[in-house]
Amino acid sequence: MNENEKNAINYLLEMMVDFSPSDEKRNSIRDNFVDILRVDAIKDPNYFVKMLEDSYLNKNCEDLQLILIAIIYFRVYNQLFEDILIKLLKSDWINSHEDIVRILGELKSKDAIDTIYEVSLSRFKYLDYEFGHDSLKVKCIQALGSIDNSEAKEKLKLLSESDDSLLKERA
User: Which end of the chain is more exposed for a tag (fewer CB within 10 A), N or C?
Assistant: First the structure.
């Protein structure tokens, strides 16, 4: 991530103190973000796709988290993001599984169904705290429910038959 990108996202983090800004304030934040970035990545989401690809290639977990904050805040993700998000979701070096699962669920990504299912059954060291894995499992179930096709329903059925009590109950 270059200096302008870091500065723009750090600015965004400072402005995110207000959890429900007015439309006017959100537009001001957007405009300032673009000015600092020196690229209108909000009008051209491919810019963020490239940033995600760079973080993937460099296995840069910190950059990934910052990029996800920006794309979620500005809701700029679309189908162009699916391939890189699925690659990232399969990675064991990241610690943003929940955010990625949420985005893929909102995109109703049919290509992500198997990966989301696998993630729901996985354990990640960074989630080894009380309820850490539970939250990810619930997000995976919600994402599969959002996708809502026969393949996603089949994965939910498999999860409902799991030995894991949370998966069994929530799926």
Answer: N
